[in-house]
Amino acid sequence: MYQIFIFLPTILEKRLRMKKNINRRTHEKKQSEAALSFLKEPRTRFIIGLAFILFSLYLLFSFIGFFFTGGIDQSLIDKGLRQIVSNPEITAANPAGNLGAWCSDLLINRWFGISSFIFCYILILSGIRIAGKEITGYPKKIFFSIVLIIWFSVFLGYISDLFYSVFDLQRSYLYPGGAHGYFVTQWLNSLIGGIGTFFLLLLTFAIILFFGFEKAFYKCVAYFKSLIPKKVEKTPESSTNQSGEETETDIPLSQPYTTSRTEPPLDETLPPFISLEDEFNPGKDYLRKNEEVAEDSTPYTFPAKGTEFPTKSDIQQETTFTNGQAEDLPFDEGKEEEGENVELTVSNEKQEETVSRNLQPEEDYDPTLDLSHYCYPALDLLEEHSTGNPKVTQHELDENKNKIVETLKNYKIEIVKIKATIGPTVTLYEIIPAPGVKISKIKNLEDDIALSLAALGIRIIAPIPGAGTIGIEVPNQNPEIVSMRGILASKKFQESKYALPVALGRTISNETYTFDLAKMPHLLVAGATGQGKSVGLNAIITSLLYKKHPSQLKFVMVDPKKVELSIYSIIEKHFLAKLPDEEDAIITETSKVINTLNSLCIEMDNRYNLLKEAQVRNIKEYNEKFIKRQLNPVKGHKYLPYIVVVVDEFADLIMTAGKDVEQPIARIAQLARAVGIHMIIATQRPSTNIITGVIKANFPARIAFKVASMIDSRTILDSPGANQLIGRGDMLISVGNEMTRVQCAFVDTPEIDAITHFIASQQSYPSAFALPEYIPENEGGSNIQEADLGVKDPLFEEAAKLVVNSQQGSTSSIQRRFSIGYNRAGRIVDQLEAAGIVGPFEGSKARQVLIPDEYSLELLLKNLGDKF
Ligand SMILES: Nc1ncnc2c1ncn2[C@@H]1O[C@H](COP(=O)(O)OP(=O)(O)OP(=O)(O)O)[C@@H](O)[C@H]1O
């Protein structure tokens, strides 16, 4: 008790002090909060930003002035800052006054030299950012600016030092690299010498360039690749005989299997980034080397390693003997005849050189060889779209949770547990109801929960498949924009091994949503106007452009609205397919759409024939076999690119063309999967007369953006839900029985513009990928063959060669080999008949080939001259 009296004053004093401290701290906190909110105010930010920008312009003027007045102002600067600032009698010649003269001397001469100009850039950038404008990659930009300041300072220090010492000049008032550049150079020169410093500068420059500017790296690689002549295998044409003269020799049979070109590589004849002058044919390179092989139509098999093939010179020799000329020669004709035999020895030598070659294919066929310098678009071309909005706050989460619990309580539904998963646009509240609660009861409360949360588009998933819980999706107050850049940069997409990889957006659990279009195998996309359909299509196309080489993928684009897909027209020669003789690769007219779809059906049939002949089941196996050089291009085999058909605004087409469009689409949808033709069809109006039963049955994968009604949602997804989405890229993807809510990645038009320009600036094929010709029945029909007989088909000669070489006069082989329609191939065969190259039509039997070899054919063609 006594002790209490002793310590009470001390305790009270302590308490008082604590309270005072707390009060002071609260006061200080309040003060700093007020200061912070003042700084955060848009007006304050704008003023500070403006101050930064104006100061940077002031510095810029003073720097420029320094180059003209720096020498005169030297004596003034030596007086020190205090004198300069306080003494009005001192006036600098610099247009930015005393302070400007002092600042520029400090930054240019005493700090980093001429590279100090970059400070102005940093200040302007920071000013703009402080003023409230979002700058993508700001920290990276600032970091690289600082690195550049340091590098240039040393570089200029090095260069100026070299210059002064080589020309033995007097140093001026200006230090181009500043004191920093000067001293670092002096130190480096003493440490690693002038040459070492030079190499170090070169290395650091490469590091800055390639890590700071991703595109620069790829451009440099492409440029250097173009400088290095490709390894050209020494061909017999260029081989020299023993006397060093160039000799004309037949192409040995082993040559067709090699991948190097017999003509100069493209990059030797053309600078990078211009069109090829060659005819486009993905298998051209392959063919060029195999043309000589197929003299007959027997299956194409590779000779066993080391097998000796007779060369053409062998064959010629044999011919000479069987013709009897050699036999007719008297065996001992005298010295002169022996002299001729010497020539024969030389030819034998050549023959030995040829047969000793390895006849096994040295490398697999590379379909990308025609555009071997092609650079894939860099991620830098895409923007980081950030809303600047804070994510879902704890307060928002608690509030929603409480309201859900309360509403359910009002309906006598007890909850055991609740868990929130924050997605980019919605938050999923997973609840476990108390035992005995009926799921349907919760499901029926959708509207009530929406009302109590005062939020639109509440979706209840009851139960969540596989989780045993009930999900309530509540839109976030500040939805996030998912940038395409982040999605494409994700490891999941980058490492995907899909045939047609697509990264579409982010799921509710913030995972990147990727899929293989080749497995879908077709996509139906629907959504009311302005809900993100076009952005969705662009996201799909962009993903494919980021992963595929032009030799592996072609798009057929149908755009009745004429504005949505036109942006891709500039990559026509890289990635688009179109009908021959068609001007625009983006199809906008209904009649042309019908022709194109029918042409795709022909392409599909042709591909099926190729697959059948190759004895494979799908395009993947076919291309693998082709790459392994197990298929003979002379027999029409070629590397098959995937074809993705994108139809924007399908409703317009169905309205105007009805069955004419529906039928080929249904046919392609049913059959084209195995041959690598995939369709993406988008529509604003998901009504049953547009998405008919036939279409629906063949499009198992569907994407729904927000639609106007539950009926529309049912039409597209076979279930409600799409009517409860919140728009702006919020979507439901249904594949089989699985439904996933995804926030579509946002990719803006300028970004697509940048990507397409990047692709278009590179070397291309000479034209778009040609689809088979399709002539509608009513445009001449069967009479067309007779009508056109007088005009020689441009492919006539090539077709004649094919027929003679393969000794097969079938229309279908011509059709396949040249990717042309049946009508045109038939017309060519009729012309071949008229020219006496093939015999008449013999019912189911193939036509007889009347010309035995290519030599006779050449004679015949010469004789025919311009008869056609
Ligand atoms: N994934 C997204 N993220 C954020 N905003 C989006 C997204 N998708 C679309 N938007 C916004 O919605 C607008 C309309 O999108 P879009 O042009 O794709 O609509 P649409 O469904 O194609 O409309 P329409 O059928 O009339 O062409 C865009 O300009 C954009 O502002």
UniProtKB/TrEMBL annotation:
GO terms for molecular function: ATP binding; DNA binding. ATP binds at residues 527-534. PROSITE patterns: FTSK. CDD domains: MFS. It is found in: Cell membrane. It is a multi-pass membrane protein. SMART domains: Ftsk_gamma. The keyword Acetylation does not apply. Residues 510-714 form the FtsK domain. GO terms for cellular component: plasma membrane. InterPro entries: FtsK/SpoIIIE/SftA (IPR050206), FtsK_4TM (IPR025199), FtsK_alpha (IPR041027), FtsK_dom (IPR002543), Ftsk_gamma (IPR018541), P-loop_NTPase (IPR027417), WH-like_DNA-bd_sf (IPR036388), WH_DNA-bd_sf (IPR036390). The chain crosses the membrane at residues 46-68, 111-130, 142-167, 187-213. It comes from the Bacteria. Its main location: membrane. Residues 235-274 are annotated as: Disordered. Pfam families: FtsK_4TM (PF13491), FtsK_alpha (PF17854), FtsK_gamma (PF09397), FtsK_SpoIIIE (PF01580). The keyword Metal-binding does not apply. Belongs to the FtsK/SpoIIIE/SftA family. This is FtsK domain-containing protein. It comes from Odoribacter laneus YIT 12061.
